[in-house]
Amino acid sequence: MRVMGIDPGLTRCGVGVVEGRPGAPGTMVAVDVVRTDPEAPLADRLLALDNGLRALLEAHRPEAVAVERVFSQHNVASVIGTAQASGIALLAGARLGLPTETYTPSEVKNAVCGNGTADKRQVTSMVTRILRLKEAPKPADAADALAIAICHLWRGGVKARIAEAAARSQAAPTPRGNLR
What we know:
The chain is α/β, with parallel strands linked by helices. The chain starts with a strand and ends in a 9-residue tail after the last helix. It has a five-stranded mixed beta sheet. The protein has a single domain, classed as Nucleotidyltransferase, domain 5, CATH 3.30.420.10. Helix content is 51%, strand content 18%. Helix 4 packs across helix 5. It is built from five helices and five strands; from the N terminus they run βββαβαβααα.
């Protein structure tokens, strides 16, 4: 399975594409950062982000998109920009009919480091080891995007199977009569 992980940001949006299967290390296909001009009007920045993500989606053809879920910080302006970028990322995947999933930072850290409170240095180190890279991906946004893709690769399949099983059980006919 090929997964595009996106670390949303309005100024720097990390993008990482990983190919593999659950339980296996995986292979890095691509890593990039979509940048927007902080001085440009908001609408132009969102359009630039959308265009950049669309181009990367078309170039790498992932089968799924995973986006880091926005969480509350002390800087409300930063959260709003990240939330807007997250919406663009989710829309970019949905526009192509790709399954999309969001993961909290602690879910991603736990998946790649085994510790939901790991710091950025630990995440980058583990991404480098898991993907067997010669050097750490830079900047941190790129390493985070790869971590998000790895998280989905390892956990997304399980989530999908659970959802499919739940849907099948809802669709299954209910037995009639007395069940003694």
